[in-house]
Amino acid sequence: MTMNATPGTPGSGTTEAPKRRPTINDVAEAAGVSRGTVSRYLNGGKWVSPDAQEAIHRAIRRTGYRANQHARSLVTGRANALAFLLAEPQDRLFADPTYTPLLRGAAEALTRRQMTLNLLVASTPEERENVVAYMAGGHVDGAMLISSHENDPLLDLLLSHGIPVVSCGLPLGRTDTVASVSVDEAGGARAMVAHLRSRGRRRIAMITGPLDQPGGRYRLQGYREELGADFDEALVAHGDWGRESGSAAMTELLARAGDIDAVFAASDAMAAGAMATLRRAGLRVPDDVAVGGFDDSPLAVNLDPPLTTMHQPFDRISAEMVALLLETVAGGEIKSVILPARLVVRAST
Q1: 0.90 exceeded by the pTM?
Q2: 3-state secondary structure of 243
Q3: CA-CA distances (angstroms) from residue 28 to 47, 114, 331?
Q4: CB of 143 within 8 A of CB of 83?
Q5: In this structure, what is the dihedral angle of CA atoms 220, 341, 270, 346, given to the nearest 10 degrees?
Q6: Is the domain of 219 the same as that of 307?
Q7: 113 and 165 together in one domain
Q8: Is residue 50 helix, strand or coil?
Q9: Cα–Cα dist 236/265, whole Å
Q10: Which H/E stretch holds residue 84?
Q11: Burial 294-308, CB ≥16 within 10 A → b, else e
Q12: Residue 3: what pLDDT?
């Protein structure tokens, strides 16, 4: 039987050479940088300029380079993976609008370095023991701790096992021993109160977050500082970041001090709850009561009216956490990075 074949196909008698796997040298040549610069980029980005990082990222995509993770692990003794560790119940992961952009940003930052992100949740004693045992077993190189509380036993467990940690938000009581990336909580709160005052509002209430977390404590501090002698404890109510707690706190504030003409909620979700309570009470936003939030989460723009809020740069927070954690894994010094919050004015004020 005769078989017809075209050159370079099976059965033709000639074969094409297998495609060569791109190497780190190919990436360096395509990016116009040295091999050492590419190596530093792949191992955390320390001492690599932003321009070089962008050039290397483009070169990796263009060449199709993939690091040999197994070989890298054998050489470095590392897992080439980091944990996104949420210290809250599982249902909070998607209920809180701030966690998803942080998670997405961390995943993108690690993808650029050809590393893996592991999502771990630990809010109960059993979950804490399981995740710490998993991380101590070498499955990840370090943890990005999300939503830590003051005196949280999870943080003590991580430190006692020598697991590198970077906290999202200043770790209350641990600022000297744990690296962190945070937004300027107090400065953002001051900016929001100043904005409300510039709109002629004088009875400005606040709904805080939990005071054992940096966002709760320092946003209240900024509110208090900006009001100065006008601060009134009766105009402060407390929530847990969630919409329902914002609604309950607003109900409490209206019963206690009904002449409120503005409210600053320490999260967009609590602001949404406050707006719902005001509506049920027959009060108009912003005509009767102006409302400001904090986060600039996707929720803010979809409220009616759209919410004035303090923008947190979640993508930059995630990228800084990844970079700082990789520095910590490599033995770098403990550092705290504080990023500015930006006022975004919408119809609610």
Answers
A1: no
A2: helix
A3: 16, 16, 26
A4: yes
A5: 120
A6: yes
A7: yes
A8: helix
A9: 10
A10: strand 81-86
A11: bbbbebbeebeeebb
A12: 30
Distance CA 141, CA 158 (A): 12
Instruction: Confirm if 349 and 292 have CB atoms less than 8 A apart.
Output: yes
The encoded tokens of residue 228 equal 């100065």
In a domain, 199, yes or no: yes
Long-range CB contact pairs, 335-339, < 8 A, 24+: 335/179, 336/170, 336/175, 336/179, 336/180, 336/181, 336/182, 337/180, 337/181, 337/182, 338/181, 338/182, 338/183, 338/184, 339/181, 339/182, 339/183, 339/184, 339/313
pLDDT per residue rounded down to tens, the chain (349 residues): 223 333 344 444 444 445 667 888 888 999 999 988 988 887 666 688 888 888 988 888 888 776 655 445 434 456 789 999 999 998 888 889 999 999 999 999 999 888 999 999 998 999 999 999 999 999 999 999 999 899 889 999 999 999 999 999 999 988 888 999 999 999 999 999 999 999 999 999 999 999 999 999 999 999 999 999 999 999 999 999 999 999 999 999 999 987 999 999 999 999 999 999 999 999 999 999 999 999 999 999 999 999 999 999 999 999 999 999 999 998 889 999 999 999 999 999 9
Instruction: State both tokens at 119.
Output: 């999502």
What is the token pair recorded at 163?
A: 């697991």
For residue 291, give the CATH number of its domain: 3.40.50.2300
What's the number of domains the chain is made of? 2
Query: Rounded to whole angstroms, how far apart are CA atoms 137 and 145?
Result: 18
- Domain of residue 320: give its range: 78-182+314-339
The answer to whether the CB of 254 falls within 8 A of the CB of 260 is: yes
For residue 177 the two structure tokens come to: 């021993």
Q: How high is the pLDDT of residue 19? A: 62
Q: What share of the chain is helix, strand, coil (3-state, %, to 5)?
A: 45, 15, 40
Task: Give the number of other Cβ atoms within 10 Å of residue 32's Cβ.
Answer: 11
Counting every residue written for the chain, the total comes to 349
Single out the residue of 324, 328, 322 nearest to residue 106, CA to CA: 322
